[in-house]
Structure formats: C-alpha cells, structure tokens
Amino acid sequence: MFKTIRILVLGAGGSPATNFIRSLRESHHKFYIVGTDANKYYFWRSEADKTYLIPDAKKRGYIDAINRIVSTEKIQLIYAANDQEIARISRDRQKLKTKVFLPSKKTVSICQDKYLSYLLWEKSGLCVPKTFLLKTSIDIKKAFVELGNKIWLRQTKGAFGKGSIIADNFQIAKAWVEFKQGWGYFTAASYLSPNSITWQSIYRNGRLICAQGRRRILWEIEGRSPSGISGITGVGKIETSKIVDEIAQKSILAIDKRPHGIYSVDMTFDKEGIPNPTEINIGRFFTTSYFLTKAGLNMPEIFVKTALGMPTESGLINPIRKEYYWIRGVDFLPKLIAGAQIKKYDKQ
C-alpha cells in the first residue's frame, strides 16, 4: 500500500520516542521518520532520519510548526510520545494537516487526570484504592481517619510517579503537599503494595487489535525518589494473567465505551493480590515498548498499520508466551534475557 511510510514522532529526544523509533526500524516496512523536540539539547539524541527543533507544546506557535513540517516532509501520521504533546495535539487535532490515531478528546482529558479516572473506576465497581482529592489540610486529616496510618500521595497529572510519596503522619503529608504547591492537584489514597503490572493495548473503533501484559520487577534509580517509584522500569518481565486482562479491559471501557488508539494501563496489586487500576497512559506506549518488539510483538508497527488502514490481525491478547526479562539502565544498552537464564542464578 505504501512504498515508504512517512511518520512524524513528537518528543523524539526522549526515551519513549526512541523506543518507538527503534521498534519501527525492526519492521519489514520501510519508514522515513521525522522527529521533533523542544529541547535544544535533547534534540541531538533523536534517532529519527531528520529532526526539527520546535516550540514547546504550551506555546502558541507549536501547531503551526508541526503543520509546516507535515507539509514539507509529506507526513502521513503523527505520533506523540509524551503526555504534554498528546494533550496539545488532542485538543487541536482539527487544526493538524495529517492523521493522528488518538482516543477522543474527552477520553484523553480524563485519563490524564488520575482523580477523574479513579471516580469512573469506582463508579463502575472496579477494585480501586479509596482516594481523596486534597483541597485543604482537612482532606488529609480525613484521609488518615479513613485509610489508616499509611497513605499514598501523588499528583493528579504527570508521568513517572510525579509527586508521589508514602506518608505515615499528618505533618509529613501536609508539608509535602505545601512544598509541591499541590492543593487541588494532589490525591491521598490507600497504600496498596510495591507490586505493579501493565497492560499495553491498541484499539480501533471499539475493537481490540492487540494487547500484552508486563510486570515490573524493579525501578531504575528508585533510591532517588522519595516514594521509591521513579517511573523508570529497571527490570521488566513478560507476565500474563486472565484477571489482569479482564481488569485492564474493564478499566478502559469504564472510561471509553468505544476505545480508539493506545491505552496503556497501569495496575498495582492490593493485599489480596487483585490488580487495581491506578492510571491509563493514554495515546502512547510505555517507555519500554521496544522490550515487546524484541520479544516478538512490534506494537509500534501494528499501531502505524492500524492507523493507516493497512491489514492487521485483531484480538491478539498476550501473543508473547515465553518468559523474558528486559534489563535496562542509564547509559546501558537494554538486554533481553530468557527467564531460564535468570533462574540459573536463583540459588546462588
């Protein structure tokens, strides 16, 4: 259908975009990849065929800059790799001169607000940690009364565990929210556990195209974060579970009855071992998308083909059956390791 697929990747100097680009390089299709970045330093990290420095997504000239690139480079599809740019192109999608493959504006807005997502999940009957929106210090007191002596604080918006901390007394919690100037933008929730799992999926007009589960084994540079959650997976593992599949799909449908685009669901296990949805990274893949590509499921390629109306399979859930680990860190090339190799060292 296309001799060369011409795609624009926004935020190309960041790790999420880099893994997306590397996945497309693994495809048997030919891609011409144009990147953009608003940071004059990160710009140089881009692995696109050509990269443009553009205004920040919050700036007035942002959409015009993208449209100029679209026209010059004959772009067929735009992919944004970070929340800020997803929010902007979602809001102004009618002004763009080429395709985007995104959920509805309403869905993007809800999923980029963790508290709004929580309210819909609670209403739908999903297991979720009791959560309070913190407007004043009185709300913190209520949280401790209802949730016990350990609460989980985090910002309602932002990735990589932004603003998260475990607080075991009122003074610490209050000081943290005030330090972050977070009244009205922070929540307090029941603390579940350190164990989390993800479910990355693509839908088109309400139909599931493909999905894959992945467990986090440990966080990279976890000691640099007050909560121990850096948002940067250091070790990931292919892991599947019917209950994870079921809860992930229910959490998506509780927000969007007709899913369309990428829905990357984050879940944390409670004390009973039930995965609770905590957020959906909407419109983009997890940073470690290249892990799944190397393990045999190239979701960025499937995303592009689906967006452009090219033939793809549908209904694929957890097609990666083998146990693989993905081990990564700053300044290290990531490594795909078979589970059997890891287990050889369990008793040592």
Automatic annotation (TrEMBL):
| Name assigned to this protein | ATP-grasp domain-containing protein
The answer to keyword Nucleotide-binding applying to this record is yes
Q: Which organism is it from?
A: Candidatus Curtissbacteria bacterium GW2011_GWC2_38_9
Give a single Pfam family match. PylC-like_N
GO MF annotations, alphabetized: ATP binding; metal ion binding
> Keyword set for this entry?
ATP-binding, Nucleotide-binding
Looking up InterPro entries in the UniProt record yields: ATP-grasp, PylC_N
Domain ATP-grasp per the UniProt entry, residue ranges: 118-308
Q: Does the keyword Nucleotide-binding apply?
A: yes
